[in-house]
Specification:
With 254 residues, the chain is α+β, with helices and mostly antiparallel strands. 33% of the residues lie in helices and 30% in strands. A 7-stranded mixed sheet has the order 6-5-10-9-8-3-11. Strands 12-13-14-15 form a 4-stranded antiparallel sheet, with no helix packed on it. Strands 1-2 form a two-stranded antiparallel sheet.
Length: 254
């Protein structure tokens, strides 16, 4: 084969490879757009706007309830946004550098708070979906609206997004941002917080000691069922206890 023919073949291979690569990229972009559209059909996006009073939500969207801690909010006008990452069932908060870069005016968005989704980005190549969220101040009963925003990246296993349907993806999203179902959410939030809170030690049983005054005994045990008054000597009878006072102080406990 002549050098000219070899060069032509090489150029043809390069052109075909380039066409296939571009075609694959366009197909991937189309798939990402399709998935994003399906998610937007599930979650109505909120719209933000600004006026003389600052940034606020001008068009509400689907209300979601935060299920896991670790989401850090920044003011809506802040150009920086910090990102938490949900991977393998765990929500990882933003790192120290990102937190420091966001500045001092930040706030943790806690479990039970309600938010909107402002933007959905689908990255099929990296199997990531990023949701930018903003506080639903009216849902949270906020006296001074703040509309803090944040972002959560959902990292899926390799090629998961190419195969999963939208319901499987929303199930994963729901582990961090669950749809608001109304009044029952408040009870669910309480139960979640109770499960997350460390067990509190049981209160010690009330005790009575020799020399305690009548007031101290009443404070510990409450009023007795019966009082036997013998002048300087008094007997307080409880359900399973009998306490004898002499001159107003405990002298015997039976």
């Amino acid at each position: 084969m002549s050098a000219k023919s070899s060069s032509a073949v090489t150029m043809t291979v390069v052109l075909v490879a380039g066409i296939l690569s571009a075609t694959s990229a366009r197909a991937q972009d189309a798939s990402a757009t399709s998935l994003a559209d399906q998610l937007k059909a599930q979650y109505k996006l909120a719209k933000m706007g600004s006026d003389s009073s600052g940034w606020s939500v001008v068009e509400p969207g689907t209300v979601l309830v935060i299920q896991k801690g670790g989401i850090l909010g920044v003011p809506p006008g802040n150009a920086t946004i910090v990102t938490a990452t949900y991977k393998n069932g765990e929500l990882h908060p933003p790192g120290g550098f990102a937190t420091a870069f966001a500045g001092q005016d930040t706030r943790q968005l806690t479990v039970g708070e309600k938010v909107y989704i402002k933007k959905i980005d689908v990255h099929l190549k990296n199997d990531k979906i990023m949701l930018i969220i903003v506080e639903c101040d009216s849902c949270n009963g906020t006296q001074q609206p703040s509309s803090y925003k944040s972002a959560v990246i959902f990292q899926f296993p390799k090629d998961y997004l190419n195969k999963a349907d939208v319901s499987q993806i929303t199930d994963v999203i729901g582990q961090v941002l669950a749809p608001d179902t109304g009044p029952n959410d408040q009870q669910q939030q309480i139960e979640n917080q109770q499960r997350q809170a460390p067990d509190q030690p049981a209160a010690p049983p009330p005790t009575v000691q020799l020399g305690d005054t009548i007031d101290q005994v009443k404070a510990a045990l409450g009023p007795p069922e019966k009082i036997v008054d013998l002048g300087q000597k008094q007997i307080y009878v409880y359900k399973d206890l009998k306490i004898t006072f002499v001159n107003g102080k405990v002298a015997d406990v039976q």
